[in-house]
Amino acid sequence: MSTPTSTPASPEAGPDRSALVRAVAEHHRDQRGPLLPVLHEVLAEFGYVDAADVPVIADVLNLSAAEVHGVVSFYHDVRTTPPPTHVVALCRAEACQAVGAESLYAAAQERAASGEMGDTEVQQVFCLGNCALGPSGTVDGRLLGRLDAARLTELTAGWR
Amino acid sequence: MTTVYVPGDASAVAMGADEVAAAFRARAEVTVVRTGSRGMLWAEPLVEVATPGGRVGYANVAPGEVGAVLDGSLDADGERALGVVADHPWLAGQHRVTAARVGVVDPGSVTDYEAHGGWVGLRRALGMAPADVVAEVTESGLRGRGGAGFPAGVKWKTVLETAADQKFVACNFDEGDSGTFADRMVVEGDPFTLVEGMTIAGYAVGATEGYVYVRSEYPHAIAALRRAIEAAYTHGFLGDDVCGSGHRFDLHVRVGAGAYICGEESSMLESLEGKRGEVRAKPPIPAISGLFGLPTAVNNVLTLCTVPMILADGGAAYADLGVGRSRGTQLFQLAGNIARGGLVELPFGVTLRELVEGYGGGTLSGRPVRAIQVGGPLGAYLSPAQLDLPMDYEAFAEAGAMVGHGGVVVFDDTVDMARMARFAMEFCSLESCGKCTPCRIGSVRGVETLDRIIAGDDVPANLVLLDELCETMTKGSLCAMGGLTPMPVQSAIRHFPEDFDRTPTPEGAAR
Ligand SMILES: Cc1cc2nc3c(=O)[nH]c(=O)nc-3n(C[C@H](O)[C@H](O)[C@H](O)COP(=O)(O)O)c2cc1C
Ligand code: SF4
Ligand code: FES
Predict the structure, then answer these.
(1) Which of B2, B7, B375, B379 is deepest in the core (most CB within 10 A)?
(2) Count of domains for chain A
(3) Are B353 and B387 within 8 A, CB to CB?
(4) Crossing angle for the helix pair B191-205 and B130-140, to the nearest 10 degrees
(5) pLDDT tens-digit map of A87-123
C-alpha cells in the first residue's frame, strides 16, 4: 500500500479507517464492477471518501489509484471532505423553477451565509422526482415538497 | 377492523403521508396498508378507506384529521371527499396499462401482486420459444420509453441473435429529466412488475443476469425494489429455476452517484462497470457489445414494466391503442406550475391541451399558461398556440419538439424564457461528461452569450453567435446531451422572441 501524496489525510483516517475501508472493498470484490458499491458503502460509513482511502480501494480491487481517483472525482455524490452537520439540498431544475425554486435557493444560501443555520451546506440538485409538488428539496436527507422560505426557516430553527 | 390505505410513495411522504399513517396506526380499530400513489399527486396525502362500495378517498389529509376520515365527516360535501377513488373522473378517464396496479396493491406483497394479475405474462412467456416472446413484443409496437423511442422488439431481436456465453439485461432507472417521476412511481408502487418484466426480457434475449441502475436520489424506490427482489427469490420467481422452468435469472440493484449523463445508456454501462460515466462512441451498439463488452438489452423502467402486460394480454391488444407509429400508452407526468399535477396514463394521441388544461387544470398560480416544456431538459419549450399537438413521437418531431420520457412542465406568464434558455446551457455545462468539445466548451460559451443577451448587450450580434454555437453543438456532439441542449434554447427564442428583445439595463451594464 502506498501513502497518499496530494491531500493530507484527515485525523479520522487512521489505521482503523483503513482496515474498515479494506474490509468494505474486500466484501464487494467479487461482484461485477465493484467500485461504485464500495464507494457508496464508504460514504455511508464515513460521510466522505478520504484521499487515504483511494490507494486502499485500488489495491483490493486491482485498479490503479488514478483510476479510482478518476471515478471519485466524476460523481457529484462522492464527497471528498468531511460532511457538514446539516445538508439542505434544493432542486433547481425546470419544474421546480416554475414554482419559485430560484428565489428559494437564493434565500437559503443567504440564510446559510448569515450563519443562522450553523454548520449547514446548502446544495443545488437537479430533480428529486417530486416535480408535481415543487419546490422540492431534502433537509438532512428527508424529501419535502411545496417548500418555501418560511418552512425552511422553521425546519432549520436552532441549528448550529 | 377498518382497512385504511396510505401511500408510501416519496411524493406523498414529502407531503406528510408518514405522519398520517402513524396517526391511523395509533388507533386500535385500524389496519394500515402502505400502497404506492394513484398518481393524483395534487391530492396527497390521499387516504383511502375500505368500504363495501369500494375504496373511498380523502384528499390532502393531515394527521389531526384521521378521526374525521374514519367517520366519513371530512369535508363531506366538499372537494376533499373524493368518493370511490377508482371512479373519480381524474382516474376513471385514464387508460392504465403499465400503471394499472400502482396505488392499488401493497408493493411489499408478492401474493397481492399475484392476486392482481402478476406473473401471468412471465408464466406465458416461459411456455413460448424466446423468439416468439420477442415477436410478441415487436407486434405490440412498444417503443423505448426512455426518450429515444426505439422499438423494443427490434433491440431484443439483435441481442437474441448475437451469440455469446453471457448476456445481460440492464434497466435504465436513472430518470434524471426534470418533470419526470413515472419510473419512480411505478417501482415504488408496483416493484414486482419490473422484476417480472426484466425476467421476461432475460428469457427472451438469452440473458441470465440483470442489473437495475437506479439514481441515488430515489431511496424509497431502491428500498421497494430490493424488498421485491428478495421476495421474488424466496418465491422462486428469480434464481436458478424461474417458476420451475429450469431457466436462470439473477437480478441486481446498482445505485448511481449523482450524474445526469449516466442516464445515457453507454454512460450508464460505464458506470455499472465501475468507471467514470463517460459516453461511448457508437457503434458498437449495446445490443451487440454492451455491459463488459457483452450483448446487453438496455431498456427504460417503463419499457420493461409494460412487457408483463403485453405477454399477459397479447401484443395485438397493446398495439390497438395509440396513433400512427406511437402504439400503446404513455405515462404522462404533469409537473411544474400546474394545479393538478401527477401521473396520467393514456394512449398516445391525446392532445397537450387535454393534459395541461383538462387533467392539469391549468396553472397552480391561477395565471395564464405561457410555456410548456415537454420531454425533459433537452426537450423543446412550446407555446400555448401549440396546445393542440397530439402526444405522438412523430407529430412532436415534426414540430421541432420531443415526447421524450413524457414529462410535461408548465410555466405561467411570469417566466423569463431567456433565463430558461440560459439554464438549459448551464445544466449542460454542469452535467456534460466532458468527452467532446462542442458540449463541454460550447455550453459554457452558451451561458456567457445568454448572460450578455439578458443584460441587453449587443443583442442581435449575440443572438447570431448563439445560433452558430447551437449549430456546432447539434452537429458536433457525440451524444444527445450536447446535441439536444440547443432544442430548449432555440425553441425558446423561436416561440418567445420578445423575451430576448432586451435593451441594456443598469444592472446589465454593471455586469
Ligand atoms: C443525456 C441523456 C440522458 C438520458 N437519460 C435517460 C434516463 O434517465 N432514463 C432512460 O431510460 N433513458 C435515458 N436516456 C436514453 C438512453 O440513452 C436510452 O435510449 C434508453 O435507456 C434505452 O431504453 P429504451 O429503449 O427502453 O428507452 C438518456 C439519453 C441521453 C442522451
Ligand atoms: S455531448 Fe456532452 S455528454 Fe455527450 S459525449 Fe459529448 S461531452 Fe459527453
Ligand atoms: S424538477 Fe424539482 S423535483 Fe423534479
Answers:
(1) B7
(2) 2
(3) yes
(4) 120
(5) 999 999 999 999 999 999 999 999 999 988 999 999 9
CATH architecture of B2-92: 3-Layer(aba) Sandwich (3.40)
Tell me the C-alpha to C-alpha distance, in Å, between residue A116 and each of A137, A159, B278, B362, B477: 19, 7, 40, 38, 44
Instruction: Give me the architecture of the B110-319 domain, per CATH.
Output: 3-Layer(aba) Sandwich (3.40)
Residue nearest to atom 1 of ligand 2 (CA): B482
Which domain does A40 fall in, by range? 4-74
pLDDT (tens digit, 9 = 90+) per residue, B334-363?
999 999 999 999 999 999 999 999 999 999
Ligand nearest to the CA of A90: 3
Cβ of B183 closer than 6 Å to ligand 1, yes or no, is: no
Position in ligand 2 atom list of the atom nearest CA B433: 8
Q: Could you read off the pLDDT of B88-119 as tens digits, one per residue?
A: 999 999 999 999 999 999 999 999 999 999 99
Q: Which residue of B has its CA nearest to A78?
A: B257
Top CATH class of B417-500 equals mainly alpha
Q: Give the mean model confidence (pLDDT) for residues B309-330.
A: 97
Taking Cα atoms as reference points, which of B254, B169, B253, B158 lies closest to residue B208?
B169
Distance CA A150, CA B483 (A): 40
CATH code assigned at A103: 3.40.30.10
A98:B377 CB<8 A: no
To test the contact with chain B by mutation, choose from A74, A102, A146 the residue with the greatest count of B C-beta atoms within 10 A, namely A74
Q: Which of A74, A96, A120 is the last residue of a domain?
A: A74
Residue B370 with chain A: CB contacts under 8 Å: none
SS3 content of chain A, % helix, strand, coil (to 5): 45, 10, 45
Ligand nearest to the CA of A147: 3
| Contact residues, chain A, for B176 at CB < 8 Å | 126-127
**Residue B145 Cβ contacting ligand 1 at under 6 Å:** yes
Q: Chain B 8-27, CB below 8 Å of chain A: which residues?
A: 10-11, 13-15
**Tens of pLDDT, residues B38-71:** 999 999 999 999 999 999 999 999 999 999 999 9
A48/A102 same-domain check = no
Listing DSSP states for B97-133 in one string gives: STTTTTTTS-TT-HHHHHHTTTTHHHHHHHTS-HHHH
Query: Tell me: the pLDDT tens digits for B169-225?
Result: 999 999 999 999 999 999 999 999 999 999 999 999 999 999 999 999 999 999 999
Is A160 a residue whose pLDDT tops 90? Answer: no
Q: Residue B476: its pLDDT value, please?
A: 97
Restricting to A residues 71-100, those with a Cβ less than 8 Å away from any Cβ of B are 71, 74-78, 93-99
B472 contacts B425 by C-beta, under 8 angstroms: no
What is the structure's pLDDT at B246? 96
Q: Are B483 and B402 a contacting pair, CB within 8 Å?
A: no
Please determine, for residue A8, whether its predicted confidence score (pLDDT) is greater than 90: no
Inter-chain touch A132–B217, beta carbons under 8 Å: no
Answer whether residue A79 is part of any domain: no
A6 half-sphere exposure, CB direction, 13 A CA radius: 9
pLDDT in the model for residue B12: 98
